[in-house]
Design goal:
The protein is elongated, with a radius of gyration of 24 Å. The protein is α/β, with parallel strands linked by helices. The chain starts with a strand and ends with a helix. The protein has helices at about 15-25, 65-75, 95-105, 125-135, 190-195, 200-210, 240-255, 260-265, 285-300; strands at about 5-10, 35, 45-50, 55, 60, 80-85, 110-115, 135-140, 155-160, 160-165, 175, 185-190. It has three domains: about 5-140, 3-Layer(aba) Sandwich (Rossmann fold), CATH 3.40.50.300; about 155-195, no CATH class; about 200-300, no CATH class. It has a six-stranded parallel beta sheet with strand order 5-2-6-7-1-8, sandwiched between helices. It has a four-stranded mixed beta sheet with strand order 10-9-12-11. Strand 9 and strand 10 form a beta hairpin. Helix 3 runs parallel beside helix 4, helix 7 packs antiparallel against helix 8 (about 260-265) and helix 7 packs parallel to helix 9. The structure holds zinc ion.
Length: about 300
Amino acid sequence: MAELTFFTGAMDSGKSTLALQTNHNRQARGLTGLIFSAHDREGAATVSSRLGLTHDAIEVSTGFDFWQFTADTLASGRRIDYFICDEAQFYTSAQVDDLARIVDDLEIDVFCFGILTDFRTRLFPGSARLVELADRTQVLQVEALCWCGRRATHNARVEDGAMVTEGEVIVVGDIGDPAAQGRVSYEVLCRRHHRRGLTMGSGAAARARLHSHGATGTAGSFGGISGPAFPVPPPGLEAARSGVAALGLARLLKPGVRQSAHAGTTRSSAGGGRARGRDLRPAHQPPGARRHRQYRHADGGRR
Ligand SMILES: [Zn+2]
């Protein structure tokens, strides 16, 4: 009985490696398959694994007709036991419908590999359809890790060194080069850091600021971040992080002060707080002073 199987996981979780291993195992048993991919990092018509393995593939463009292609291939007398479908998140839902039909009507096993959600945390159409139709959906066990050491579950798009949450869904970029300037790259993050927009690059910038201010910080002391990996965002980190992170700190240390911390981030002038998204520190106050005040505040709400 043929099956439609969907293997999913974050970037860096070994999907393409498993796709090529699945192909190898079946070939070794005398089975014949076809390999498909779309927008592979190495270019069109290729499946490439970050471990260095590559294999030729049939490129699945938006207009590619799986059903017609398969019918033509079988009509030419070629045998097909299985499909390996990499980067399946980029397939259209109609193409996934065709794959299910190929499983049911032609008894061809289809193994799909893909990311569930895009950089905006929304399901890719192809992945959504696979979740709806697959006989089995398996989350890969190789865990990708966020820079903080937590399990990475979300994909961040980084443009010119900054995380973005709007734009075209499909923009192929580099992976593992978050500091890339002038081009798009992707980075895997835990949900917490995806929500805060804290990529590895912004964490490194934060560390540099922290050191230049002569302050010290330890992992686990700020915003609930724990684990040995540094870069710990300092309290002085500007932009939206400042308000959000301060809120996280207050919530972590003393749930009761959440309300006042929140008020501090939204109130326009009182208490030294300014508009959210900007540095909360009054102009006359040195960085250390603000940090100190914030910790005291979080500790016991003394103010
Ligand atoms: Zn993280």
